[in-house]
Amino acid sequence: MNLSTQLLHILGSGASAYISARNMRDLQTRPNTLAALQMAESGSVPFLEALSARATAEGDTWLAERLARHAADERRHGQIFAQALKQLNKQLIDFKSIPQTTNDGTPDERRRSPFFEAYFSDYSSEALKPENIDWTVFFASTYILELDASKDFVRMANALPDTDPASVNLKKGILSVAHDETGHAAYLREAMERQLSSAAVDEAIDIWRTRKVNALIAMVGGFLQKGGKMPALTQEGMPDRAEVALELVAAN
Hints:
This protein has helices at residues 3-25, 30-43, 45-57, 61-87, 114-119, 135-159, 165-195, 198-225, 241-251, and strands at residues 90-92, 234-236. Helix 4 (61-87) runs antiparallel to helix 7 (165-195). The relative contact order is 0.15. 71% of the residues lie in helices and 2% in strands. It starts with a helix and ends with a helix. It is mainly alpha-helical. It is globular. The chain has a two-stranded antiparallel sheet with strand order 1-2.
């Protein structure tokens, strides 16, 4: 990275860290933050599983095993955030019940990710499918995301208060997520090093670090333009049938 990109990386990461930590600590914004994290973690599972199957078909057992483990981790992460939402009597909205476009014909913003649109600009959706994506593009782009996420999760965990059991348990869960993300970044870098020279690895990382900086600045700018408000991603949670039954028994 050149000096200007390094400075923008520091500024953009700092702004993003502040926003995410603040939104996690505030009980008013915590549900939406948890829902967004649940979407991101759980949503990556099918993609990673498909990549694992592709690696198996290509004879790369080492990579297939790590991708399968990565997918299992992300599924568990989604469950951690879903459980935290449940404790707040919230759950992720049912996207099947939401129109794909608004009244004016534009895509519903809850179905869009301005960050990823900027991060993967110039790449078609077809080129990013698991059966088509270039392995170096996947390794380098995901390495940057996992490496930064490991640090972001630690900041979010540390922003939580130690005054109530729910926050303490959530903090432990998020720190376990951060630990997993560190491991993901490590195997992704190793995957690059198995295929590329040291110079090529550094170049790929530099390219995707720059893309991340640009995408992050665009995302933070859009967030601030909206007054710091995120689109609603949660709805009131419905208690499990077992819980309802226990409450009825207790009442009688």
